[in-house]
């Protein structure tokens, strides 16, 4: 009988790794409570609960965090068009803070001395979890078995885990693991490791779980309409279904269903992890991809140019990096997000989209904001515009450039060099 | 017989507008030389030359600027992943500087006192042309008829132009104009004005010129391979054709042909012009779209994380804005582009792509640069990695966040609020 | 008797220029109301009122805008450490928006069709005034006589103005102008033009108005204490005077008096105007200089590193440029300032300063915020710090750099070259 | 007799810490070579060499790195106006890369398996040294005794070191240490730790070593002239001495001497270390402070506005952070510095300075670059400027703001609120 080292709240997934960790923590002398978060992943929560208790968890907690995941994490990221390294929509990064907060809440209430997780020692998620824990409860203690030599040396390789599971009577569903790892939630699924570690290996067709292959998607396009208020989706109209969705979680689910059907939202990249290692990841972010296209398009119609430029260069980039690196519970995240509402006040209107075999095509957009003025931009009428004003504008804009060109010319530096020009007269 | 006011070099397109401007300039007392640039647009140059001389141009110049367009303008933009407002690949912006330089060169050689163009007074291109003129030759004088009241009041509307053309014996091919304006070059075609001024009008199918509609594209995907050296495309392999392209202009043309076939590169946006007016534009940038996807993907494999982040936030954004606003011949453009080579030294390797109905899908990538290390990133082996190091890393990273959280807690501000958590034991 | 062209509200200074403009506007057929703003400049307002009415103004308005100048304009600039081109504290830029708003308010109430000002056609202030007018009341009409050829050609040179003043019975106090122009308010005074146009001319001693020369300042230093809450000064303690100041306007005035005495706040620069012209300006910003030193110092003690870095690169630079270019009443200004409060929540505490002959020297600072931890940073005790953590931190930080160095070495590129090293053994 | 664990190159200072480390490394079984860098600090190198060899070093190396310190490290930082957190000129950060490179060069030549240093486990310098080592020679092994528990636990506190020194026959000059730590080089000296750990303690007068107190500086100002080419100082003229300095190292020394005399270059701050700990530091950067003032001033006269703005926001900030955090040997440093030459091509001319009791006052500047044009900026003449152009410029600039204001008005949001305005008529 081991000594009682204290109470641990373990982020439990129901899989082989965290089940073994659960057993090992008990073996090490801890009392273990198991915690699962429902952030929209497909999961047999009842089976997981049963399994956790069977393996030895004293208590099991299931937190439905879908709504706060959507409204607190996903929404600001949508408003700010967050993206990491031009491609990755941050699906896993967005879920970690709500899960970590859910855990700290239970750990607080239940008097847990420790929190624990099954993340590997090379990835981003350990960092995201732990920085979130510390940012919420700076005196919490963390047990990360995959960074503890006694654990990772003992359980090097899946065989060692399977053997331990057998010894501990831990039920195992698959003795052969999929040749990649996944993380799934309402926003996306990620695939990494295993055969994907060769960046030149094309992911097999049967890997992709949340979307139809574009080749297998319907041969007819489907039209939908998205409505935004303050940069947030407030309605999805799906004429084919004769349906409208207005609830935040339902909007997301509906967009996921539509994108899944039409093969939208797959990416395959090599990214740079926070710890400085390059890593290959494949992701499906179905509904989020549609939402991003629509939101950015509506901003074209409704957002002031200079606000957009400043937001793109700072808010978008800063918030994306903060989310990726796990700095959600930080003063800089509060600072960066504090400016988002001001940027989205005018982002009101609708966007009409065509979904077709991997493509999200904007077919039109409309708003009553009034920043777009067809008469003003028209090439067919003056619309109150004085063309002579532009002459003054260009003249002033050229002052600085002329001075520079004169200065270069005075030094004998010319911008013009001989080109192939053929003349006739 | 009007007085001789001097010699004008006119940017001539062969169309109704610039033909009327040509005639009007002569009427106003100028001697006019006509200038056309071949930047890859589909054009009957011989017919245009004939027409210009017939209308009264004293000389006609045709400059083949395709190669310098590709190597001097497009290439740095590809290396820097330039994009305006997240969507527009800057096709027109990229061509203006080489055209303007071609004109200044001819104006210099031929002793022209003026340069002239047919751009409207509300658009970006007048600014791009004129700032380029002034940045190359600060004492050049510019005649912009669409900003001269005597001109734009006299020729308000197409009918007035048609009537003037009839009077001046200017041959007119289409008495009914297309309900939009276009600008075409090797990189792209743009559509704006006319029916597109309502941002909620879906562009008609027959507008799109450079690409097949995704719906009409082949039902089978096609695979190609792109090779890059220092971030520039050096080879396109098209297995279906059993062909390879290695010349800069041919690479671009080959990618255009492939993208056209597979319906790749259409966009439809509302953008913010330099003069502060919102404007709706549709664009086809076929080959450029493929190139962008491939280049960004290879950067994932081969570019250092911090270089990428700095380049994205600084070079990409600054250069895109400089190009869009017509500041190519400026000290800030020289400053910004001077850092590009250093950012692309490691961007060497190949990218394998699948083209299918509007989609450019990365299927794999390879490089000998060695910044990606499968063993290091592997979840299955340590690969020289010490997991305990990450504990130290997280510990140091959390110092600042813990202090902040303690400070908040001392003020009674908690980051954790009640959530829906259901527990069992 | 001229026709009645409408009612104009004129920004009136009481000087020769705006008095002549007043008379000229009447001559041109306008009914003129005169407007003066008290933003803390030294001025005989009663005399100016009398003069305006004598010259022919139908009404005279004096708006005391000192408090809103301090609390609405200066305070956010202090919180964000605003500065233009590393040196200029933006004193004139900060005053223009409150003056413009005061004018629009009166123009609205009094049914004025126009606003007018006496700014020259080459400067920043015309832009700042007019963009503020348009941002507040987009349909206001502006009369800028110094940009109207009939005016500026007629009144080219001071002699023409003096002659007109004589004709119009406008009282003139100085027939010989100072050889520079000034703009003064509670925050600063600017000097430009005249003899200062040669950037190599040292400003004469008698030009400086708001500060003692450092050479003439007291030979003994003086100590003061500044207290901040949320990044704003809430108290100035002046032990020598046995006084404390807590009112916003009084704090500013007290700091001005102290800085004046000790020769603090002079600068002399060549700056870049919004219109692209380089211009030489000298400025005295006495109290503002002390405030800036103290605020930045306290941020060192109390502001999170990452918030500070993001704020410096984004908020400070963006807001400074917005203010300088006259974009105060704009969506981007609202966007940028919306993030300031979040950045200043922890900037609470006191700073102890020594003022001495042009120097503002920090002698110490204190705060109860708790982000600084003497034990943690101590070199003499561990203070809960695990030095081994840093080993992990450095190890992780070096992953990326080692990969890069290996990649360079594989290409035969070495970072080490021969240096002069002498060895003994 | 301990086993031979290999050869170590130790960064040796001659002080108590590194002498004890030298002895301890020998005790631990290493063969130790001692390395000293001359980066301009005041030091008895001969005594240090003698001491190192006496304590047991097998070889001693002295590298004179002053010139490369100035030309390779300091110069780009001067050109880019590098500064950390608005105040710190990076003196220590700049020296570390050249010292580390000197060590790696010797380690390479002499076949050392390890490098070692005496930096503490909480500071920046350990990170700067080690990241530099790894960036130059990724397989080098580092021994950092102050992060090795057996060392830091054994030698906790100065007494333990003194006792060990006595046991090991290590000569000790001061048995009572100064109540702060210092790091000195040609650029600056830093003071931290000890009594300075209370940020509210005013540094004692006798701490400051490189500068006279402003109170004690001469009562008469001294004028000097600095000449720059491409943003680098090429000549210092000191009329009082009837001397000119043109050699890079001599220029720096001369400026140090002048600044020392006139009390220029002291700062006292709380800064944020790379590891996230706040730390109080005092610094004297005498010559560097003069150089910075002069360089920035000349940029006002000679550098294009947009280049300056981009450089300030990116190059300056990025390079300062890179230097501070010890990322000098990195791809991002190469990227960032690659753009500096392009930014400095026009920074040619002279600056006239007055030095007086802590103040560096610009009295004038001159350049033949021609970007400044007195006639153009003049308020007294048009100088080729058309004031009507500005009307067009403002009109175009206001388009966007008017639209925004109209949009706000349409929603019933007004920018104007009631203020205290008193009117008379």
TrEMBL record, chains A, B, C, D:
The keyword Ribosomal protein does not apply. Pathway: Amino-acid biosynthesis; L-arginine biosynthesis; L-arginine from L-ornithine and carbamoyl phosphate: step 2/3. GO terms for cellular component: cytoplasm. Residues 7-171 form the Arginosuccinate synthase-like N-terminal domain. Residues 180-403 form the Arginosuccinate synthase C-terminal domain. It comes from the Eukaryota. Transmembrane segments: none annotated. GO terms for molecular function: argininosuccinate synthase activity; ATP binding. The keyword Amino-acid biosynthesis applies. One of its GO terms (biological process) is urea cycle. Keywords: Amino-acid biosynthesis, Arginine biosynthesis, ATP-binding, Ligase, Nucleotide-binding. Gene3D superfamilies: Argininosuccinate synthetase, chain A, domain 2 (3.90.1260.10), HUPs (3.40.50.620). Its EC number is 6.3.4.5. Homotetramer. HAMAP family: Arg_succ_synth_type1. Belongs to the argininosuccinate synthase family. Type 1 subfamily. This is Argininosuccinate synthase.
């Amino acid at each position: 009988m081991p000594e009682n080292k204290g109470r641990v709240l373990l982020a439990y997934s129901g899989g082989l790794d965290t089940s073994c960790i659960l057993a090992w923590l008990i073996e090490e002398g801890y009392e273990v409570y198991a915690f699962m978060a429902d952030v929209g992943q497909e999961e047999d929560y009842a089976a997981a609960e049963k399994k956790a208790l069977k393996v030895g968890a004293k208590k099991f907690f299931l937190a439905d965090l879908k709504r706060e995941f959507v409204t607190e994490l996903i929404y600001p990221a949508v408003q700010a068009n967050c993206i990491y390294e031009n491609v990755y929509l941050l699906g896993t990064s967005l879920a970690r803070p709500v899960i970590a907060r859910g855990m700290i809440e239970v750990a607080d209430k239940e008097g847990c001395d420790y929190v624990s997780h099954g993340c590997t020692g090379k990835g981003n998620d350990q960092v995201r979890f732990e920085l979130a824990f510390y940012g919420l409860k700076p005196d919490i203690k963390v047990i990360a078995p995959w960074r503890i030599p006694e654990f990772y040396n003992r359980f090097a390789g899946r065989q060692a885990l399977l053997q331990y599971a057998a010894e501990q009577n831990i039920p195992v569903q698959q003795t052969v693991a999929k040749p990649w790892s996944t993380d799934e939630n309402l926003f996306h699924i990620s695939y990494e490791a295993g055969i994907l570690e060769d960046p030149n290996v094309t992911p097999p067709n049967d890997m992709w779980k949340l979307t139809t292959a574009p080749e297998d998607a319907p041969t007819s396009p489907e039209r939908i309409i998205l409505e935004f208020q303050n940069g947030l989706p407030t309605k999805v109209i799906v004429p084919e279904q004769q349906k409208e969705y207005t609830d935040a979680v339902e909007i997301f689910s509906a967009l996921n269903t539509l994108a899944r059907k039409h093969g939208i939202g797959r990416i395959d990249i090599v990214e740079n992890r926070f710890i400085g290692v390059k890593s290959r990841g494949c992701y499906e972010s179905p509904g989020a991809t549609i939402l991003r296209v629509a939101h950015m398009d509506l901003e074209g119609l409704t957002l002031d140019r200079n606000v957009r430029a400043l937001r793109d260069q700072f808010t978008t980039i800063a918030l994306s990096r903060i989310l990726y690196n796990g700095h959600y519970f930080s003063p800089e995240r509060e600072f960066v997000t504090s400016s988002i509402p001001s940027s989205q006040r005018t982002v009101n209107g609708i966007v009409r989209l065509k979904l077709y075999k991997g493509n999200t095509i904007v077919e039109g957009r409309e708003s009553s904001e009034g920043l777009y003025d067809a008469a003003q931009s028209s090439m067919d009428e003056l619309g109150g515009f004085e063309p002579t004003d532009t002459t003054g504008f260009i003249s002033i804009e050229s002052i600085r450039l002329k001075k520079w060109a004169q200065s270069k010319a005075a030094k004998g530096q010319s911008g013009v060099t001989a080109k192939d020009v053929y003349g006739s007269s």
